[in-house]
Amino acid sequence: MKSRYSYKETFESGQKVAWQVEDIIGGEKRLDFRRPFLPESLARVDSMDFLSAEEKLLLNQIRGYGYLYTFGLVEEFILPFDLDSARPHLSGDDYRTRALLRFAGEEAKHIQLFKQFAAEFQRGFGSTCNTIGPPEEIARAVLSHHRPTAHVSCATWEDADAFSPL
Predict the structure, then answer these.
(1) Cβ-based burial of 162 (10 A; exposed 0-12, middle 13-18, buried ≥19)
(2) Boundaries of domain holding 106
(3) Is the dihedral of CA 54, 60, 66, 71 positive or negative?
(4) Which of 154, 143, 149 is nearest to 75 (CA)?
(5) pLDDT exceeds 80 at position 5
(6) Helices of type H across the chain
(7) pTM of the model
(8) Which of 65, 75, 140, 149 sits at a 20 to 30 Å CA gap from 160?
(9) Rounded distance, CA 9 to CA 33, Å?
């Protein structure tokens, strides 16, 4: 299947939308625990009539933390998968090399963003929310599978990430 995009166009487009983790969270930018973290379409807490407004807000925030933690966890295996997939294609077309490495750099930035969010959440939430992990062990387990299986796992999560409303 032939794509209508070139590596040069992809690389140049990626440069235009460059962002930094610090633009989103960290330093002066803190999570506002007075507000929900997820839109209702994802949190689905409003219909829980047995919860008070404060409890719904807390549940929304816990679900937001779980949502982003899960994406951060998945990025831990997407990044090494992408690097391994790019390695055989790093010669020849300089734009291809730069586009593939830029993509890997963006994945690393996502990992940093999700870790920063998790640390900020844990500092400000007031209760411990346990998670699965550690992420590095899960990444190792996913990547130990037959390459096509790992590829499907990575592609599925990349598609979900692309269509995420956050």
Answers:
(1) exposed
(2) 37-162
(3) negative
(4) 154
(5) no
(6) 7-16, 40-43, 53-86, 94-125, 135-143, 147-162
(7) 0.74
(8) 140
(9) 40
Tokens 């209760």 locate to 127
Taking the CA atoms of 60, 164, 142 and 145 in sequence, report the sign of the dihedral they define.
Answer: positive
Q: Report the chain's C-alpha Rg in angstroms.
A: 18
Tell me the per-residue pLDDT of 71-96, one tens digit each, with 9 for 90 and over.
Answer: 888 888 888 888 887 888 777 788 88
Residue 19 lies in a domain: no
The model's confidence at residue 37, banded by pLDDT at 50, 70 and 90, is: very high
Indicate the number of domains in the chain: 1
Q: Are 20 and 104 in contact (CB under 8 A)?
A: no
- 42 half-sphere exposure, CB direction, 13 A CA radius: 17
Residue 3 domain flag: no
